[in-house]
Amino acid sequence: MKDKYGRDIDHLRISVTQMCNLSCTYCHHEGEYNPGQEQSPVEIKRFVEVFTELGIRKIKITGGEPLIREDILEIIRSISSIKNIEEISMTTNGTLLEGLAVDLKRVGLSRINIGCDSLTSILPKNTETVGKGLTAAHNAGLNPIKINMVVLKGINDGDIERMIGFARENQVVLQLIELINVDSDFYRRHYFSLENVEKSLERRAYHVRKRKMQARRQYHLDDVIVEIVKPSKNGFCLNCLKIRLTSDGRLKPCLMKKDNLIVSKDKDSILKAFEERCIYAHD
Ligand code: SAM
Fold first, then answer.
1. Atom of ligand 1 nearest to the CA of 125
2. 23 CA to centre of ligand 1 in angstroms
3. Which domains occur in the chain, in start order?
4. pLDDT digits (tens, 9 = 90+) for 145-193
5. CA separation for the pair 185, 190 (Å, rounded)
6. What is the DSSP string of 192-250?
7. Is the minimum distance from the CB of 192 to ligand 1 under 6 angstroms?
8. What is the pTM of this model?
9. Tell me: the pLDDT tens digits for 39-49?
């Protein structure tokens, strides 16, 4: 399924709730403001069925905090029962993962991203809060496990090297993420460019892989992989292969656009949403 820029859209990012048990100051809330009623597992399934007809093969479940939903296992089970779905993954803050990892795997989750921004309690998502969830994810066989670290100037930018060590020790991929601007004042104070970090990783890596998704680069160092996510740079938007479904059942072609939400589950409206996908950055 190609959009008007010729991009083969095969990823659907589904927000299942806007509720969260943590409050991270920088959170972009998946671009959702004033969400309405959450969708039921049946409604989500109906949407995904239409999407698979259009070529969607990979699903990412997000939120809010997706594990807050009491019916999260039902949501994953019903999506995984759909023909042609190749992969279901999830982004979570990991706090509720310990008791759920085995069941998530059993109903069809294949891999997981766990938010972890620091080595101390300076930020809500840290190595302490994710520890048990991480072990449970390993034991359940979720693979790969990625740690998502949003790098913030003056807060955790000094933690990068030690987080690489943490990822190595725990056999997980570390994703270093540049801050997306949702609050100009916070952004001005805390945006940290990963430019120099990337140059240093380039020198240290024995292999560099460019992923199709958003042209992200993965640096393979000794016993650990570090992936760089730089929204709006280096072909990020040109190579964006995803579309979004909001927690209240609207299509959102781009995280950064507020005016392109489309309500409907029929094929024509979904096709229109594909057409309206935008290039946000100038690359
Ligand atoms: N509660 C889950 C979690 O913590 O991963 C899922 C929702 S969270 C919005 C999804 C991802 O977006 C997390 O990896 C988070 O770190 C990232 N994120 C949130 N706000 C961001 C921002 N302003 N810039 C860059 N990444 C952000």
1. 4
2. 11
3. 11-276 (3.20.20.70)
4. 999 999 999 999 999 999 999 999 999 999 999 999 989 999 999 999 9
5. 9
6. ---HHHHHHHHHH-SEEEE-SGGG-EEEEETTEEEEEE-TTSTTTTTT--EEEE-TTSE
7. no
8. 0.92
9. 999 999 998 99
